[in-house]
C-alpha cells in the first residue's frame, strides 16, 4: 500500500475535453468519467437534468503526491473560468501483483 492523491472534479460536460487534456498535461493519464451528474451545491440550488442542455460530469483520477502541484496549476484556471469544483484527498492505493484467478 502507498499514499496517493484522489482528485474529484465536478464540472460542466462542455469542459470535459479541456479538463482531461489538462490532467494529461499534468502527468495524470488515467481517469474515470461519470456523466449526467446532478446534485445540490453550496448555493442551495439543484439541477434538473431534464431541463439542462449541458449536463455535469464527475471525473475521478489519482496521482502521486508530487504530481499534485501541476494538476492544481492546470485545473484551477479552468474551474475559475467555467465553473465547477475540485476536491483532493489522501487515499491509500493497494496494488496487487497476483491475479485473483490464479490463486
List the helices and strands and how they pair.
Layout: E1 2-12, H1 16-25, E2 31-37, E3 56-63, H2 68-82, E4 85-93
Antiparallel strand pairs: 1-3, 1-4, 2-3
Question: What's a concise summary of this model?
Answer:
This protein is of the alpha+beta class and 103 residues long. The chain has helices spanning 16-25, 68-82; strands spanning 2-12, 31-37, 56-63, 85-93.
Measured on Cα atoms, how large is the radius of gyration?
16 Å
Query: Which bin fits the share of residues in helices?
Result: 10-25%
Q: Shape from CA axes?
A: globular
**Distance between the amino and carboxyl termini:** 20 Å
Q: Which strand order spans the largest sheet, edge to edge or round the barrel?
A: 2-3-1-4
Number of helices: 2
- Residue-averaged pLDDT, rounded? 85
Instruction: Give the beta-strand count.
Output: 4
Structural class: alpha+beta
List low-pLDDT spans. none
The ordered H/E elements are: EHEEHE
Largest sheet: 4 strands, antiparallel
What fraction of residues sit in β-strands?
25-35%
